[in-house]
Amino acid sequence: MNRAVTITVTDMLDYFGKCPRCGYPATASKTVRHLGRINVVIEVVATCGLPCGWSGQVPETTMTGQPSVGGHGHTASP
Ligand SMILES: [Zn+2]
């Protein structure tokens, strides 16, 4: 078995944070590191969309919340 650390980087398309320096919407990417079977470290690093040079680690928060999971996609109207 391979014991190397698995690192997965995913662009967070639903991240709506802003740069604390210039206020421009920032982009974020999530880095998930699998350190073995149970240890998972998740880091979210945001980068400013403008070349002001800011980037930093931010809490993992999104505006969309949890996606709806289920086979029934119909919404009943009152
Ligand atoms: Zn900025």
Instruction: Show unreliable segments.
Output: 66-72
The largest beta-sheet arranges its strands as: 1-2-3-4
Number of separate strands:
4
The portion of residues assigned to helices is under 10%
Mean pLDDT: 80
* Biggest sheet details: 4 strands, antiparallel
Question: Separation of termini?
Answer: 55 Å
Instruction: Identify every distinct bound molecule in the structure, by name, code or SMILES.
Output: zinc ion
Helices and strands, in N-to-C order?
EEEE
Radius of gyration of CA atoms, rounded to a whole number: 17 Å
Strand portion, in percent? Answer: 35-45%
- The class by helix and strand makeup works out as mainly beta
Helical run tally: 0
Shape designation: globular
Protein name: Transposase
Question: How do the strands and helices of this protein lay out in sequence?
Answer:
Elements lengths: L5 E7 L13 E10 L3 E10 L6 E4 L20
Antiparallel strand pairs: 1-2, 2-3, 3-4
The structure holds zinc ion.
Zinc ion binds next to loops.
